[in-house]
Amino acid sequence: MLNLNGELSVEILQELQYYTDMRFKKPERYNQATALSVYEQKLIPEDRLLEICSRDEGIELKCPPISYIPNEILEKFVGEKVIPVSYSPPTKKITCVSLKEFGDKMKPKQGYEVEVVYVPIYFYLKLYIRHWGRHDDLLSIPAKTLFDFIIKEAISAGAADITISSSKEEATVYYNVRKKKVVSNRIMSAGNVEDIVKLLCIKSPMLLNSNRPKYVSVDLNDEYRGRVVINPKFKGTSITIRLLPNATFDSRLEDCNLTKETIDFIRDELMSSEVGLRLFVGPTMSGKNTTALSILNEVVHNKDQKVVSVEMPVEQELRGVEQMNCEDDEEFDLVVGSLLRQNPDIIYVTEIGDKNANSVMKVCNTGKWVLSTIHANGVSDVFSRLEDITRLPVNRIIQVIHSIVFQELIRDEDTDTVRPKNRYVYLSQERKQRLYNCPYEDIIKEIKSWEAGDLW
Question: Are 388 and 394 in contact (CB under 8 A)?
Answer without folding.
Answer: no
